[in-house]
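Take a specimen:
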Amino acid sequence: MENEAHSMSSDIGIGVNEKMVEALESSDNIPLLLTNSSSLKRTGTVWTAVAHIVTGVIGSGVLSLPWSTAQLGWFAGPLSIILIASITLFSSFLLCNTYRHPHPEHGPNRSASYLDVVHLHLGISNGRLSGLLVNISLYGFAIAFVITTAISLRTIQHSFCYHNKGSEASCEFADAYYMLLFGVIQIILSQIPNFHNIEWLSVVAAIMSFTYSFIGMGLSIAQIIEKGHTEGSIGGISTSSGTEKLWLVSQALGDISFSFPFSTIIMEIQDTLKSPPPENQTMKKASVIAVTVTTFMYLSCGGAGYAAFGDNTPGNLLTGFESSYWLVSFANVCIVVHLVGSYQVYCQPLFATVESWFRFNFPDSEFMNHTYILKLPLLPAFELNFLSLSFRTAYVASTVVIAMVFPYFNQILGVLGSMIFWPLTIYFPVEIYLNQSSTVPWTTKWVLLRTFSIFGFVFGLFTLTGCIKGIVAQKIG
């Protein structure tokens, strides 16, 4: 019964407490949610999982990788991408194996969220901490998606304005309108019931991510051919001092490490997979395919961009091409469509956590629990729940408002990403694996995993320092 309580309570989210656990342990209705979860029809395959991962991982940040490669040089740049990809893949393997856990009475249970598996294996305190970090991360990404979408839409508008009116024309457009438009679209899409119903959106978004990455890569290769030679060096961009170089390297490593952010949603993705074959086998295969494809895209895009621009590599690859404005504008359209899907991939897990918490605490509330079936003319029937409608609308509105008030949030996101990289990508997966496998302390496996965790902590601290230094330098400058 204790395991049931842990599984049940952790699925509720960060608001779980000891009283809830005690109530669950003494309740005769504990298997209710487990039964509902088990009866949920799972149709996901290795390819839908790949689409979810690619949608969550390959974001517009891929366009900043040429700049990162330029800071690190031809040797350290590609090596860093491969190393961080390997860390991400290893971490995903550790988490994949924790999805199912044996239960003596009800058969294998599922850990359908990151905080669920942390709470189950590491206790309620770690569950709260992981829940807090995961939800802050998801919320931060949502705000960043709003800002990045507005930037891409503004870039498209600028491109057409300058093309039609000349480079001297006044072409200033407020980002607020684009953010509001994005918010309206997300309010509608957020009414999709859960993560299991957005497979089509992830597939479309994944296609878009490949499209704009290939456009940036293709334009870079065309520029290299036009020049007749490649730019760049082994040591990367030279700086006035070793200290300045160190800070730029830390920022570059931070950008690369935050280009593989799917540990926070891996359990939700795995929970969409059908069985047989076992979900962990399918998820491992999907992770290998997705990370391999992603790494190839990152190496190609980062390398081509650095080879095309050398020391003048821009922070966003697409801003470096003054010609081919139609192609650049189309790439930005693809970015917008991709971010529409990414927003849902990162928000659906948070929706599930918060709404489950409310429904657990107010089981008799019709507002929280009753679902209405609506059928409008010419449209298929859809489900409407007032809790989901009100909370998700308020959530999207809050991300848009923060993005409008604080348009430089992307800079803070680097700091936030540095803070959560070690605990969510390395520490918790390692601790969960050690707990589940009952690894004996000071054995070879135990020492290697602890060393891996310590390395991740030092790496995260290094990139955090670089991100803070970069923000301070930019504000002073």
